[in-house]
Amino acid sequence: MTAWPEALADLAEDISAACRAAFADATLRLVEALPAPGGHSGFTYLLHLAGEGASRQAVVRVPPPHARPSGPADVVRQGRIMAALGAAGIPVPAILAVADGEHTASGRPFVLMEMVVADPVDLASRTQPPERLLRAAVDVLQRVAALPDGLTGIEPDPSSSPAGQVDRWEMLMRRGPAELTDGAGVLAAALRASAPPARRAGLVHGDYHFANLLFRNGDVAAVLDWEIAQLGPPEIDIACLAVSAIRRRFPADPNPGGQPAIKLDEVIRVAGPDYTDLEWHVASGCYKYAAIMAYNLDLHRRGRRVDPVYEQLTETIRSLIAEGARLIDL
Q1: Residues 101 and 240 in one domain
Q2: Measured CA angle at 52 (ends 48, 53), to 5 deg
Q3: Which of 117, 155, 195, 219 would be a feasible disulfide site paired with 163, CB 3.0-4.6 Å?
Q4: 176 and 210: one domain?
Q5: For the purposes of burial, counting CB atoms within 10 Å of the CB of 44, is it exposed (0-12), middle (13-18) or buried (19 or more)?
Q6: What is the distance between the alpha carbons of residues 248 and 188, in angstroms, rounded to a whole number?
Q7: Are residues 230 and 154 part of one domain?
Q8: What whole-number distance in Å separates Cα of residue 154 and Cα of residue 202?
Q9: Do residues 97 and 163 both lie within one domain?
Q10: Is the CB of residue 266 less than 8 Å from the CB of residue 233?
Q11: Residues 6+ positions from 39 with CB-CB distance below 8 Å
Q12: 8 A C-beta contact, residue 223 and residue 141
């Protein structure tokens, strides 16, 4: 009998039944369940299944054990958004099943989705020019931004203003190690004081870096990990790509976000005039990612969510805060 990972053990029967229904094969059984490679946040697993007719693959995402399924752990919300985007023609994994906690034996939800066969950015970069990958990534953002809210699956969530982005991440920053975040308070105050007006809003992914994209022949085949999606200025996602480019300046630290050889000014040039106030949004993005890393480092050090990669990101945390300050002339 195949051993299920601890985070899936209490969902084994429900996930197995969902796989058999999704593939219309009553003989399917789990062969292997492995953590998705490169993940440093959500609980995502690759499922390998075998039946009398054929072998199958799928992906399942679950909230952390014992966590309240809200915010980034609300996998039902993620499934709803991805299903709506798929129906609207946006490249996302097809949703095979969404189970809320009321319909599983353990009371925990899950979302089952297709396994997308495509290249992560490091492989795509071997055959495609960096600007091609960047333009493909921006093209998807433009398509998402053009969708009416009613086709995104996110209604009726409130929209976040630019200044609201600082509010959203400030609590995480305060949880980070003080020796790494001592300039963060000044940066937050300056971002609030210089925040641009909310010119337009739509669905934003919120963590739109290259490691959350899969490519096929230079085009985006799938956008993954919609766990912090929200309604807000579309510049937020351009800023995510920009921060990934900035992180190439710190080669001693790992860059799990993935990054082809693209510079900050190239991101801004390819984004074009439709995206406004980008220097402010990139500075805000530096603040956001420094806050996320600092918070996760605190969780790691306290043994709450152990992931040694965050101990290797101390220089990145400091440098992103400094870069944010530079971008808004502090």
Answers
A1: no
A2: 85
A3: 195
A4: yes
A5: buried
A6: 23
A7: yes
A8: 10
A9: no
A10: no
A11: none
A12: no
Q: Output the six-digit token pair for 316.
A: 């990145």
Residue 252 CB coordination number (10 Å):
7
- How far separated are the first and last CA of the chain, in Å rounded? 60
Residues 75-101: what's their mean pLDDT? 96
Per the DSSP assignment, residues forming a β-bridge with 56 are: 49
1 inside domain:
no
Conformation bin of residue 231: beta by default, left when phi > 0, alpha when psi is -120 to 50: beta
Closest CA to 246 of 285, 276, 218: 285
Domain range holding 134? 121-327
- The number of residues making up the chain comes to 330
Residue 168, class by beta-carbon neighbours within 10 Å (0-12 exposed, 13-18 middle, 19+ buried)? middle
User: What are the pLDDT digits (tens) for 211-238?
Assistant: 999 999 999 999 999 999 999 999 999 9
DSSP helix/strand/coil, 43 = strand
Identity of residue 294: A
Of the candidates 286, 244, 237, 279, the residue with the CA atom closest to the CA atom of residue 261: 244
Regarding whether 258 and 131 lie in a shared domain, the answer is yes
Q: Are residues 110 and 200 in the same domain?
A: no
> Domain tally for the chain?
2
Among residues 95, 114, 133, the one where a domain terminates is: 114
| pLDDT, position 39 | 59
Statement to judge: residues 129 and 76 lie in one domain: no
Q: What is the pLDDT of residue 227?
A: 93
Q: Are residues 87 and 184 in the same domain?
A: no
